[in-house]
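Lay summary. Proteins are chains of building blocks that fold into shapes, and those shapes determine what they do. In this project we predict the shape from the chain. Here is one chain we studied, written as its sequence of building blocks.
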Amino acid sequence: MKIACCQFTPVWADPKASMAIVDQLLSCYGPDDIDLLVLPEMAFTGYVFNNRDEIQALLEDAQNGVTVTWAKRQAIRLQSFVVVGYPQSPGYNSLCCVNPQGHLVQTYQKSFLFQQDEVWAAEGPGFVSIEMEGLGKVGFGICMDINPYQFKAPFDAYEFANFHLDQGTQIIVCCMAWLQSSQVMDTISYWAQRLAPLILQSKRRVCVVACNRTGSERGSTFAGGSSVLELGHNVPRLLDHMDASDRGVMVVDVAKQI
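And here is the predicted shape, written in a compact code that computers can read:
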């Protein structure tokens, strides 16, 4: 299975311009090149909004909004699953998953909100893991979801990781807008640390796809480091990753790496 992360810097509050960037990055790919394409959290709008009024005009319908429509078009063109984050009406930080036939198969709303989300978004109803034809048992997350709830829960509660351990999730897809605080490998190591229960189990190998963004936006700088990891049997394996400033598409053939 060929998994792709598209890491880039969106144009703040300008979905059309951001989509044009990604369209160009994907222009050299076609059917059979990618099986699962993942984009960052709030991929086309940017992430930093300081109040509800700033983002109101960018909130999208979950069925026919500009992001979902874009994902459907690219899914059909690439014959690939497409996962991309966007701000959902009436006020959720969400992602959509579209299958290669261009059908929306899942909308997931971020469950654990970061402080930047709290000024405009509501918490989603909870983590999800679903059977998807062609992929298996797939779970979804958005950035802060992997952290302790509100940074108040015990660090070792591992709410997100334990949910997917209990669900038997085989592939975890995370759309990220993770802030830069250290070197890129430190960021990736922290992501793996937050998934420790999946590393320590010996029932299955779990593929984790974390697609982050780059660039600076309204005083915030993002970490990049988009990664594909394989977890389980007490070993975290980093199959491939992008650096903090890389912009482009990384394709990882997971079957060849395992």
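What the prediction tells us: The first strand starts at residue 2 and ends at 7.
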